[in-house]
Amino acid sequence: MKSKLFILSVMLIVSFQLVAQNNISSLQSKGALSLGLHLGVSQSGTDTHSWGRHGESIFSQAHLLIGLNVNYQLSSHINIRANWFYTNISGDDNKLEGPCSDVNDNDVPGSCHMQRGWKFESPLNELGIDLEWHILKRSRKSLSSSNDNFEMVQSERGTFEKNISPYITAGVALTFTNPTINFTEDNFPPMSLQQKDKDDFSSPFLHFPIGAGVRFDLSHNLSMDVEARGVFPQTDLLDGMSAVTNFDDERNNADAYHFLSLRINYQL
């Protein structure tokens, strides 16, 4: 836990230093900072849920996603942003048709998940820092002219031009979950394995998100992002189940989650 918080703290300190240095060199600039509100849907892949396959649709176990971010434009191509996302993740064996896999990762016919009948649900909070790279060169919008380390625009109200800017993101994040698990009486896992999962569970989990999106300028101060985002799997315990799902196989399939969001940004 301490090492994860240390990594995120270092990222925050570096981010604030970059912003401070940029502010010192461009005291007259306006419009570099914006606030954003996320709204979208989330999906996950866990031991009791496989979205878009094994009999489940891409909308199965989808959940509402909300959040906030603070975005700072460092250059004509690069932004840095701090994010907070909130959603839920869940899974239900009774909705998962299978097939299952043997120790050699070969599919085994049958509805083993439905026979097992486990399910879980959990809130998910993500706090993180992303770098946002815009493929097309952009200029800051400003109501006054200034010399900066990249292009400034001298504009007046009423001379707004709409722009479309595709971008990609990468960053580091801490993911917080608190799963509630329901095991069936007929397939109740050994208490020793349940205890092992409880002992190994260590929220928050360190993740490395990546994403891609498109920004649409709506007005002088408003823009809209459409963004898809996911994480590289790092743990098999987002759902609180690892040892209980791998009786004969020590290899664990890591859990993951994904976001599809629409974001409204207000440029300060």
Describe the overall structure.
It is a single chain. With 268 residues, this protein is mainly β. It has a single domain, classed as Porin (Beta Barrel), CATH 2.40.160.20. It is 15% helix and 42% strand. The chain is built from 3 helices and 13 strands. The protein has helices spanning 2-25, 112-116, 191-200; strands at residues 33-46, 49-50, 63-73, 78-92, 100-101, 107-108, 119-134, 164-177, 180-182, 205-207, 209-217, 222-231, 256-267. The strands form 2 sheets. It has an 8-stranded antiparallel barrel. A two-stranded antiparallel sheet has the order 5-6. A hairpin with a 4-residue loop joins strand 11 and strand 12. The longest helix has 24 residues, at 2-25. It starts with a helix and ends with a strand. Mean pLDDT is 81; it is low at 12-30 and 142-158.
State the order of secondary-structure elements, H for helix, E for strand.
HEEEEEEHEEEHEEEE
How many DSSP-defined strands? 13
| Biggest beta-sheet profile | 8 strands, antiparallel, barrel
Instruction: Show unreliable segments.
Output: 12-30, 142-158
Task: Determine Rg (CA atoms, Å).
Answer: 22 Å
CATH topology: Porin
Summarize the structure.
The protein is mainly β and 268 residues long.
Task: Describe how the helices and strands are arranged.
Layout: H1 2-25, E1 33-46, E2 49-50, E3 63-73, E4 78-92, E5 100-101, E6 107-108, H2 112-116, E7 119-134, E8 164-177, E9 180-182, H3 191-200, E10 205-207, E11 209-217, E12 222-231, E13 256-267
Antiparallel strand pairs: 1-2, 1-3, 1-13, 3-4, 4-7, 5-6, 7-8, 7-9, 8-10, 8-11, 11-12, 12-13
